[in-house]
């Protein structure tokens, strides 16, 4: 994979950078600017070299239409505050305004192009549709830097086709992500523990399959755990359950046993009358994992499991965590996710290499107030880090070779 060093002297060069600024918004307020901050090292390095930095990114899913609420204006404003310079936002991605703003740039200037997904060609599955569009973007730059790790698992116009049109390299963030995830999957220090949560088993099938012969220990929580508990013959009440995955999960339980992989499931669960929304009252109750009442829904791992999960994590040299343990947005069901995060922090202090695998886990860590430097690495890409852990070839990385 080519890196910034491979691009040579960038003074005065127009450098197109694909960043990941897909941040959560409340109106026009950014509620978590982690992804913007993650892009700063690359932007600063390019500015110091005297490059003209032209940033492109997407926000939300406008489906190829101009959706004013998904404008990158809040991102341009926040980025300007973080860099201490004005970051003008072009009104389009490659049209007249983008061309004029790029033409007016001096060395070290930064410009942000409007949401690339306002263009229907950006996410087209047809390379023949994407290629001419990508050429229009490529015409704005001299070289291309891929720094949006959150999109490298997709072949899209602004991260894949543009890379084929210009000299291309990975930015510092993508380089850091690949190094960290490779360290965990290629030759991990052992014991190697993988903690999986989140709502669905089906989202994590590939990861489980790929890691069943790599990890020493699989720790399972979140909504996906109830399919595991059901596969063991337990009743799961009204908890989230993927009936169509039961046979597969039974197979995983057998394979884990055969491979000597320790499969850690919760021994107790926090239940409620239903999902805490609307008229459903929040009345948490702790029950054994093999005795969930028929009319109750499991929403977090219980106190005994929190200690168990924490201790298993601390007893590891490499830990990868992807997916919360419960409905962490509701304080009564956040303790399991907190216990896992604390386990990773304590393991890091003890010298372990720890990765928080993007998406909901990264946002949980920040929302629950954990310091970012408490972990070896917090990934910026949920789907991308999952596919990397599955051992899949990621098109946005392949194109940089």
Provide the gyration radius in Å.
22 Å
Low-confidence stretches: none
Distance between the termini: 4 Å
CATH topology of the largest domain: Rossmann fold
Number of domains: 2
Give a count of the beta strands, DSSP E runs of length 2 or more: 16
CATH superfamily of the largest domain: Phosphoglycerate kinase, N-terminal domain
Instruction: Write the H/E string, N to C.
Output: EEEHEHHEHEHEHEHEHHEEEEHEHEHEHH
Sheet with most strands: strand arrangement: 10-9-8-14-15-16
Percent of residues in beta strands:
15-25%
| CATH structural architecture of the largest domain | 3-Layer(aba) Sandwich
Which structural class do you get from the secondary structure elements?
alpha/beta
Mean pLDDT: 96
DSSP helix fraction:
25-40%
What's the CATH class label of the largest domain? Alpha Beta
**What's the overall geometry?**
elongated
GO biological process, one term: glycolytic process
Binding site for ATP: 204, 298, 329, 358-361
Pathway: Carbohydrate degradation; glycolysis; pyruvate from D-glyceraldehyde 3-phosphate: step 2/5
Subcellular location: Cytoplasm
């Amino acid at each position: 994979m080519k890196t910034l060093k491979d691009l040579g002297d960038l003074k005065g060069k127009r450098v197109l950078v694909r960043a990941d600024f897909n941040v959560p918004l409340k109106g026009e307020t950014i509620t978590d600017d982690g992804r913007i901050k993650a892009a700063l090292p690359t932007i600063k390095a390019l500015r110091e070299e005297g490059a003209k930095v032209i940033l492109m990114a997407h926000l939300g899913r406008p489906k190829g239409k101009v959706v004013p609420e998904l404008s990158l204006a809040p991102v341009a404003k926040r980025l300007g505050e973080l860099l201490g310079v004005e970051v003008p936002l072009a009104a389009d991605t490659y049209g007249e305004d983008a061309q004029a703003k790029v033409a007016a740039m001096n060395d070290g200037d930064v410009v942000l192009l409007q949401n690339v997904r306002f263009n229907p060609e950006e996410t087209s599955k047809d390379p023949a549709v994407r290629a001419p569009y990508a050429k229009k973007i490529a015409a704005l730059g001299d070289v291309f830097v891929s720094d949006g790790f959150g999109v490298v698992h997709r072949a899209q116009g602004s991260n894949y086709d543009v890379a084929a049109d210009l000299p291309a390299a990975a930015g510092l963030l993508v380089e850091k992500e690949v190094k960290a995830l490779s360290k965990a999957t290629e030759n991990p220090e052992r014991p190697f523990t993988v903690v999986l949560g989140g709502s669905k088993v089906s989202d994590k099938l590939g990861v489980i399959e790929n890691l069943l012969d790599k990890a020493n220990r699989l720790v399972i929580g979140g909504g996906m755990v109830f399919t595991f508990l059901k596969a063991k013959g337990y009743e799961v009440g009204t908890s989230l359950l993927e009936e169509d995955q039961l046979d597969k999960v039974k197979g995983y339980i057998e394979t884990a046993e055969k491979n000597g992989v320790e499969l850690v499931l919760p021994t107790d669960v926090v239940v409620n009358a239903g999902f805490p929304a609307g008229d459903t009252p929040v009345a948490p109750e702790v029950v054994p994992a093999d005795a969930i009442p028929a009319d109750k829904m499991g929403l977090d791992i219980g106190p005994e499991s929190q200690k168990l999960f924490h201790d298993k994590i601390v007893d590891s040299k490499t830990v990868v965590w992807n997916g919360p343990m419960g409905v962490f947005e509701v304080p009564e069901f956040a303790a399991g996710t907190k216990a896992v995060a604390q386990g990773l922090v304590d393991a890091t202090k003890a010298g372990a290499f720890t990765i928080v695998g993007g998406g909901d886990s990264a946002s949980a860590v920040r929302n629950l107030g954990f310091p970012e430097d408490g972990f070896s690495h917090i990934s910026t890409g949920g789907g991308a880090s999952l596919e990397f852990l599955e051992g899949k070839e990621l098109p946005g990385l392949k194109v940089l070779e």
